[in-house]
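Entry type: protein chain
Record version: 2
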Amino acid sequence: MTESSHFQYVECEPHDPHPLSPLIKLPPGACDTHAHVCGPQSIYPLVANRLYNPPVASLEEYRHMLDTLGIERAVLVQPSVYGTDNRAMLDALQQDPIRLRGVAVVPFDISADDAKTLHAQGVRGVRCNIVDLKDGKGRLPLDGLRQLAHTIRPLGSQPTRLGQ
């Protein structure tokens, strides 16, 4: 672990840059439903109050893994280390709009226009990092979640939750 400011960040292990082909061929249309692209930090800075430091995981490396495994489609999920700055994921979606879709992290009060823009960029859901949302008393901000669900419902998107 490294120490920075008041936080200790867990250093995540890097992925294997040399994936092996599976022994069994995956079915047509196989989809990886949860993956992250990260870095470089010089372009996509991490939030200060994160729990971990991710290794660089580029879109090129990810696509190489998908090709090696025979996975045709994928969903990129905004990692918590970027907060609501979805640029790394959105840049990746722009580079491969046929193969990739995204799940963004957005503020509860996102405007309908901003939600439509994300949808046009390939985002099909929003992620609420529940571990970051608890009010200190173990309760979830239900009013904020309802507001968000109301905003994205017309787009056919769904809020997802992670954490306890």
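Comment: The first strand starts at residue 2 and ends at 4.
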